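In pairs, describe these two lines:
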Amino acid sequence: ERPSVEYEVALRLVDASGAEALRADGPPVDGRYPTDRWETGQVVRDVHSFWIDSDLPAGMYRLEAGLIAPDDAGPIAWLRLGDVERRLNSE
């Protein structure tokens, strides 16, 4: 069904213990096409990225995306996009 509010897109990395290690939120399509204007069944393509800080510990992380409500009540659901391995420069 058509969204009734303007959600934000969130990307995050989750560590092996399930803790959120990194997160970046922002409007879809750089704010040019808010979710409350999307039509039912419409596919909206979007690109989001974030920088991984050099002090992020080495290890495996789960990359997830979600839609966040304007009241920051949490995501509708997190979608697992894949896994990311953080290696130190010496590895």
Summary: The two ends are 47 Å apart (CA to CA).
